[in-house]
Amino acid sequence: MEASPLPVADAPEGRAAPRLSWRSLPRSSRPPGGRALTGLVLPLVLPLGLALGWEAAVRAGLAQGRLVPPPSRVLATLWGLAESGELWTHVLASLTRVAAGFGFGALAGIAVGALTGTLPLVRRLVDPSLQAVRAIPSIAWVPLFILWFGIFEASKITLIAVGVFFPVYLGVAGAIAGVDRKLVEVGRVFRLSRPALARRILLPAVLPATLVALRTGLGLGFMFVAAAELLGASEGLGYLLLDGQQLGKPDQIVAAILAFAALGKLCDAVLVGLTSPLARWQDTARDTL
C-alpha cells in the first residue's frame, strides 16, 4: 500500500478529508531543502535583475555602455583573466595580504580591547589616544609605512592590520564594558572562581559583539588592501583596478570590483562558518547558567 506523504486527520462524518500540502504546514515543519533553495536564490534576484536590465538597455541602444560596460563584456574579461591565470595570481596576492593583516589586527584588537574594557585605568590612559588615531584617514598612513617598512609586503600588511584593529578593539572593549553587572553578581553568589566566571558569564556575554566586530574588521581589511595595492603593488586586485584605469579598460575595473565582492563575501562566509561553533557554545553556556 502506498504511503501518504503527509499525515491526514480523520475527517468528521459527512465531510471530505482536508487536502494538505507543504504550504499549509507551518514554516518550521516544511522540508529544509525548500528553505535552503530560497536562501540561495533570493539574494541573487536583485543583482541579476540589475545586470539583465543593464544588458538589455545596452543591446537595445538605450545606453552606450562605454564607461559602464554591460555584464556580458565584464564576464568575458573575467573569463579571459581566469583562463590566462592572471586573475588567480591577483586573487592570491590580495587574499594573502588580507589574511596576514586580519590576523595581526584582530589579535591586537582583542588584546587591547580586553585590557581597556576590563581595567578602567588603562581605558582612561589609552582610549583617548586610540580614538584620535582612529580618525586618521587610511591613505595618510601609506607614505609613513612605506618610509618605515619599504614598498614591499610589510607596509601593506601593516596598513591592513591598522584597518582591522579599530573595529575589533571597539567591539571587544564596548562588549566588556557593557556586560550586565547583575550577571557577575549572580556568578559571585554561586561562588564561581575567576576562570569559571570568565568562561560561563563574561565570554558568552561578549562573544556576539566580538564576532560582529571580527566580520566588520574583515570587511575593512579588504578596503585597506585596495588602498595599499593602489599606491604600490605589482600584483593584487587593487593593482588590477589601477591597471584598468591607466589603460582605459572599464570592463577590467568592473571585473576587479566584482572579484573583490566575491572574494570578500566568500571570506565572510568562511569566518561565519569557523565561528559558528563558538556561537553554539555561547547558547549552551547561557542555557546552563
From TrEMBL:
SUPFAM superfamilies in the record: MetI-like
Coiled-coil ranges per UniProt: none
BP GO terms, sorted: alkanesulfonate transmembrane transport; cellular response to sulfur starvation
Transmembrane segments: 36-54, 98-121, 133-151, 157-177, 220-242, 254-274
InterPro entries hit by this protein: MetI-like, MetI-like_sf
Keywords on record: Cell membrane, Membrane, Transmembrane, Transmembrane helix, Transport
Membrane protein topology class: Multi-pass membrane protein
Localization per record: Cell membrane
Superkingdom of this protein's organism: Bacteria
Residue ranges occupied by any ABC transmembrane type-1 domain in the UniProt entry: 91-271
CC annotations in GO: plasma membrane
Pfam families named in the record: BPD_transp_1 (PF00528)
Family: Belongs to the binding-protein-dependent transport system permease family.
Reported function: Probably part of an ABC transporter complex. Probably responsible for the translocation of the substrate across the membrane.
Protein's name according to its UniProt entry: ABC transporter permease
